[in-house]
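re: that chain from earlier
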Amino acid sequence: MASFNNKKVRSFKLQKLKITSYDKKERKDSGKEFEVMFNPESVRRSFTNKYTKQPSNPQNEDTVKFTNSARSTVRMKLIFDGTNVHQYGAETAFRVLSGSQTNVTERIDGFLTNIVKIKGKIHEPPFLKLSWGQTLDFNCRLNDLDINYTMFARSGDPLRAELNVSFIEDDALDEQLAKLDLQSPDLTHYRIVKAGDQLPLMCQDIYGSPMYYPLVARVNKLKSFRNLTPGQEIYFPPIEK
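^ sequence. v structure.
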């Protein structure tokens, strides 16, 4: 009789996309896990670099100067189906017989409660992690959600819904800097803010990259890095190479 090793057998097992919800940004404690009903047909990952225009020569020709990279986003469509007509019929039949099958309304309520809505303990939406094989390992927050009900029972209850959802990247600051692998001088700087100064551009001048502005904002306990006050002293800490 032919035999298969466990690793090969596991490779044939269907892996479902999971969204884990946490109360803390560190995502170290056990979270509330939500498994999708159907894996998405496609996942869209978007990246954006931001620039400012600056005059570069007497002919007034504009050049673009890099300021920062925006947080990446992930977009997908999730299907919730309560018709029991799909490729996992045996699985659904078991759930129906065991009484564990949930309808579309219940699944959407669970999604809204654990993924979308503001949590009472932290007074903001939860911290999330998307996990799906080698495709997604993504710390994020919910960005936006659009629910489209496409099929209804005679009672008016929804039988099928499409959730168009997007998530925005939410790595911890040290993880962001580690991924960037930026090289910066091991120097300490104090600067006095002048009118028109922007923190990302100040970081560009000191460190050679604007991507350190979240670290500088945190060290200086700035509530908003966008609202610097002329005359304000900003401390730029040393960052090891």
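Strands lie at 18-22, 32-35, 43-55, 62-81, 127-132, 136-152, 158-169, 189-192, 233-236.
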